[in-house]
Write a structure and sequence with these properties.
The protein is mainly alpha-helical. It has helices at about 1-10, 10-30, 35-55, 65-75. It has four helices and no strands. Helix 2 (about 10-30) packs antiparallel against helix 3 (about 35-55).
């Protein structure tokens, strides 16, 4: 039981993603008002962006920029 709870809490961002997708899908299917449907689509869009950010985030890592490319960009700016 303790292992299940620790697994659930370790991946809370995925549960937030699932909840946002479900809320957005409900708004798109159940509501008849077009503005509310668009708000539901916006909630789903936010969930997808959250998912992409959460799968791309790494603890203790740096951004993947090649040093020679960074040097080339800096040289072209001046």
């Amino acid at each position: 039981m303790e292992s299940l709870l620790s697994n659930f809490l370790a991946k809370y961002n995925y549960w937030v993603y699932i909840a946002l997708v479900m809320i957005g899908m409900y708004a798109m299917i159940a509501k008849r008002n077009l503005v509310k449907k668009i708000i539901g689509m916006n909630i789903m869009q936010t969930a997808v962006i959250l998912f992409y950010v959460s799968i791309g985030a790494k603890k203790g890592k740096t951004i993947p920029i090649i040093r020679s490319m960074l040097f080339w960009i800096q040289r072209r700016m001046y």
